[in-house]
Structures are given as structure tokens and as C-alpha cells.
Design a protein that fits this description.
Layout (H helix, E strand, L loop, with lengths): L22 H19 L3 H13 L3 E5 L1 H16 L4 E3 L13 E5 L6 H12 L3 E6 L5 H5 L2 E4 L21 H22 L3 H6 L6
Parallel strand pairs: 1-2, 1-3, 3-4, 4-5
Amino acid sequence: MDEIKLFVKKSEQDFEGGFVVSDRDENLFKTALDELGGVLARVDDSQIDAACKLLAEARQIAVYGCGREALQVKGFAMRLYHLGLPVSVVGDMTTPPLGPGDVFLASSGPGETSTVLTLMRVARDVGATNLLLTAQAGGSAAGLADATLLIPAQTMANDQGPQRTSVLPMGSVFEGALFLLFEVMVLKLKSLTGASPQAMRARHTNME
């Protein structure tokens, strides 16, 4: 098979084959990456460590997010399972009931997502610990949280008018930051749990 190459075009001259990235596209990539890096640089390391400790010590973990945040949260749940942690995704029929000693991890960038607020109240009422990932420290969700991991990114709470700061649409910066943050949390949890790469791979599904 011929080697597949990625060509970056620096001029307007056409060429055959490959994938063209214009100067303007390159600038957009750089801007988006700089925005993500700036957000993650402002995340409090102590909050990350506290969140990882809660997850590592939880009797059970249930996770939830809405929309595109849900995709990131589900990906994180998969890695938590690979680490050997007892995790489920709220909404799946196999999600067990929560209670004392359990952690409900919820993502709500804008901090006012109605379903997240409802589920956090349910978790609180049964004695579970609410761990919230949000961009709005003063939001309603933060008021229900036992622990908050603040991700200072643009969301749909502030993506219009003079509040808008990102070249990316709506909540994309928050969602992108979630992915990278979760990857770092997996590395920290790997150290906390002592999970080996071999054990993690052994837990990966063979039903794909």
C-alpha cells in the first residue's frame, strides 16, 4: 500500500492528491489549540487531584452529561472501567441505585442544565457525593455540588455578544477541554489505582 501523506499547502497553487490545509485553516487550528491550552492552564491542579481521589475511593461511580458533553463523559466512563473502577452511565438499564459512598459525576458547562440539576438532587437525597465539572462556579449546579472541578471555558452560557471569547462555536471549547482533562485524570487515576497497561487492555471489550 502506498504511503499516505498529509500535505500542507502554503500557496494557492493546486496539486493532485493529499489533503489541503490553507494558511487560514492553519491559523484556525492554532487559535483553537491555543484556546484549549489557555483553558487547561487555568484549571486548579488541586481540584483535579481531589476529583481523582473521590473517584478512586468511590464504592460506585455514575456519570452523566448532556449533548456533546455526554460524549466526553461516556468516553471517560469507558476509561474508568478499563482502570477497574465500578462505573456506569446514567440512562443505561444496568445503572445501579446510588447511595452513601457513591459518587455521581456530572458535567454541566453552563451550570444550569435542568436534567443535571434534577439528578444531582436525587444523588444528594440518597447520600451520594456530587462531583461537578462546570465552567460556571456561580451556577445552580455548583450549589448542589459537594466537589467542583472548574473548567473556565466558553459555553452556551456566554457564547453570544461581547461575552464571546472563542473562535469555536457554542460550547466547543468546554467540550474539547473535557476530553484533554479526562485523559490527564486517567493518568492520575492509573497511578492512584496501580492499574497496569496490560490490565487496562485486558478489560477492553472484544465485542467490537
